[in-house]
Amino acid sequence: MAMKRFVLVCLVVLSALPARAQWFIGCRTADGNGWEETPIFHKTIVLTNSEVSNGITRVDVTSLGYHEVYVNGRNVGDKVLQPAVSQMDKRAMSVSYDISPYLHEGGNDLMLWVGQGWGRVYGTPAAVKVEVTWENAYQDQLYKTRKVIAQTDITWMTSPSGYSYTGSWQPLQFGGERYDARKTCEERRAAVVDIKMRSALMDGKGLDIFAQEFEGNRIIDTLLPVSVTRTDDSTLLLDFGRVLTGWFQADFQPLPSGHEVTMEYLDHLRATPPHTESDYYVSDGSGSDHFTNRFHYHAFRYVRVTGGDIKTARALQISALNPDEAATFECSDPRLNAIHDLIRYTLQCLTLSGYMMDCPHLERMGYGGDGNSSTMTLQTMYDVRDTYHNWQTAWKDAMGSNGSLPYVAPAFPTGGGPYWSGFIIKAAWRTYLNYRDPTLFGRSQFYDMMKKWLNYVKRYSPDGLLQPWPDEGRMWFLGDWLAPDGVEVGGESALFVSNCFIVDCLGDMERMAKVLGHDDDGKMFASWRKRLKTNIHRKFYHPETHTYANGTPLDQSYALLMDIAPNRSIRGEVEERLLADCHGKYNDHIAVGLMGVPIFTEWCIRERQADLMATILRQPDYPGYLHMLNHGATTTWESWGCERDNGEKVVEDRSRVHNCYNGVGIWFYQALAGIRPDPDDPGYHHFFIDPQPVNDIDWVRATKPTQYGTICVEINGNCLKLTVPEGATATVFPGTSIERTVGEGEWTFTF
After folding, report:
1. What angle do CA 319, 389, 600 make, to 5 degrees?
2. Fewest Cβ atoms nearer than 10 Å: which of 14, 44, 118, 447?
3. Which residues contact 272 (CB under 8 A, 6 or more apart)?
4. What is the DSSP track for 639-679?
5. Alpha helices, DSSP H only, in 541-622?
6. How far apart are CA 645 and CA 649, in angstroms?
């Protein structure tokens, strides 16, 4: 991909606006013709005793690629794989570190280790811009002083490290890391470098720097192998018991100098290249042979080690999510608990670096369709406001001048449809609904972006219905994706559900315009929505079968959710046909894909079809979540599976950690536990408690963290116990004869 020349720009850290400033520096290769992929930079900074004792010293780092910061040999902070993703031909992120606790009087060694990372996609070398500042500790702002201690220039010293990349960082070509221990030494960790050369300045045009809003990734767990099996004389197979996203570490038995060990990563045992990735370690013959990932990561359960015997090995799980702060759910049915836990854990593996990816190993793309499919589940289970702030910014930067949007952000040529591009609207409203945070539409550039995209939609809506648009850096015009065998999602269905999705988006735009006080916009969106619904019904309804489009569960449920039917009679016939097909044609099995899972789930919640959903989820065979679990799944898959000619249900060799089918996770909280946010008083400042009983579920327990505190629901038989956080209110059993609104405290109800 051609890369614009860069303009180097400065950063005012506390500002949301870009600033223009000094230089990035890189490390030239020995021949002077290229740039090192994982260079080390360091500089000595000198502070007085008074400055160490009475001030705060910060280092602001903007790297084109990943970076780590060390002060006096100590790694600063607990964040890894910084910074967040961005549209790197337009924007780079600056990360600020308080290094005061690491400093002492006199000379202090500051080291930056940089890896090219996503820069490999954009053709940018591993480069960094640094500013070190000191500020006194007086509380009175009037007497605060600030001074710059160091900035990047050609006085910094640099050297290559022993790490290099083996892949192009393209889909199915991410490769891994090669660590040649002969090219480094122990002292490198303390910023002592062997071969030093002056840093080379790098300049260019077009890049802005912004303070990173995303809080960062952490190592959230350390796993040891549950088994180590020798498969032949030179190969060991390590099983870590579950799929994870993160790093591999190993200590090897002593190896001769130049000997190479291969580590191949598999999310399932049938995986073969290019569905696997590999790292390589080259020994220096010192007898101390250690490998750890640094500026790359993998998704794996198994590691196949060839060419070396393991002394110790561990896997480090990396995520932006904190499992200790997640929502919780449990009920008397262990099958449903297993599905809930499968989905919640999968989201930990998919959410890092300021976006949510489809899969962490094969594509690593921020697909809008996958995001739309799982946003309500993710935002119910976790606090991911900072992730969505960063991701929405990437979508803004990815927009074309004519209002077109790709299907992923940061942008890359991929397949999808309107459900993918329209993430910008759905994510904005849902972030407000779940967190009372209007940022994703309150900032004018975001709201204007949404309107610009809708104008692009209108351009391709002859006769008032959206039609397939041209491939502009993207492919296809999908509706549902990866539905089970026998569910027809092409033809009319793709056009129908895409137009229903625009109805959905216009409803959210009307609501957001109301919040912002843009009354004229709100009226325009409402009028457009009304006309579109009429056009959809006229074009796609088949009265002889009481179906819309292909009559799939997605087609029918989306029509019902968007109120496409013009009268109650038709609506009743469509719903009756949907229920009949769920029980008959699909034999009480899931019959939707990526787009259909959250939409069908939302319909089940709204229409109180808890028994239907429970029956579908409990199916042990293909297609279904228990089918995945019964075939060893520890994370949800890219596909429900497939069927051989002889009728045996088997699994496909696709990704086993994917963001296709996680949208059902919201059902556990909104249906069984009954916890629903109020769109008129969002962020769970006011919420509803409206559980939907399932006959053979005896008890339900759920917790939902909010900015006001944790909501707790415990249902046992016909007794409901509720904890309302301080400052919040809840309406219990809304619309019934026992409806009651209560404030903070613990409450008990009988129903």
Report:
1. 75
2. 14
3. 653
4. S--EE-TTS-EE--SS-SS-SSSGGGHHHIIIIIS-EEE-T
5. 553-561, 568-583, 596-606, 610-617
6. 9
At residue 734 the predicted structure's pLDDT band, cuts being 50, 70 and 90, is very high
Predicted pLDDT of residue 283: 97
Report the C-alpha gap between 173 and 278 in whole angstroms. 11
Q: 98-120 pLDDT, tens per residue? A: 999 999 999 999 999 999 999 89
The helix (H) or strand (E) run that includes residue 439 is helix 439-442
The structure tokens listed for 370 are: 């996958």
> Once rounded to an integer, what is the mean pLDDT over residues 210-226?
97
- Of 21-35, 634-648, 708-722, give the range with the top mean pLDDT: 708-722
On whether the CB atoms of residues 417 and 370 are closer than 8 A, the answer is: no
Q: Output the DSSP codes for 447-513.
A: HHHHHHHHHHHHHT-GGGS--PPP-SSSB---SS-SPPTT---STHHHHHHHHHHHHHHHHHHHHHH
Q: Is 27 helix (H, G, I), strand (E, B) or coil?
A: coil
Mean pLDDT over each residue of the chain, to the nearest integer: 91
In the structure, what pLDDT confidence band is assigned to residue 24 with cuts at 50, 70 and 90? Answer: confident
CA atoms of 319 and 356, how far apart (whole Å): 10
* pLDDT for residue 472: 81
Closest among 581, 594, 590 to 550, alpha carbons compared: 581
* Poorest-pLDDT segment among 132-141, 253-262, 506-515: 132-141
Tallying the residues shown for the chain, one arrives at 751
Per-residue three-class SS string for 719-734:
EEEEEECCCCEEEECC
Prediction pTM value: 0.93
3-state secondary structure of 445: helix
Amino acid sitting at position 528: W
Phi-psi region of 491 (alpha: psi -120 to 50; beta: other; left: phi over 0): left
Q: Are 283 and 258 in contact (CB under 8 A)?
A: yes
466-486: buried (b, 16+ CB within 10 Å) or exposed (e) per residue? beebeeeebeebbbbbbbbee
Question: How many C-beta atoms surround the C-beta of residue 132 within 10 A?
Answer: 22
Q: Over pLDDT 70: what percentage of the chain?
A: 92
CB hemisphere CA count around 17 (13 angstroms):
2
Residue range 299-326: mean pLDDT, rounded: 97
Show Cβ contacts of residue 615 under 8 Å, excluding neighbours closer than 6 positions.
588
Separation of alpha carbons 670 and 124, rounded Å = 45
The pairing of beta strand 163-165 with beta strand 177-180: antiparallel
How far apart, in whole angstroms, are the C-alpha atoms of residue 314 and residue 295? 17
Please report the pLDDT score of residue 62 as a whole number. 93
Which residues neighbour 674 within 8 Å (Cβ) at sequence distance 6 or greater? 688, 689, 690, 691, 692, 713
Residue 323 in tokens: 């499992």
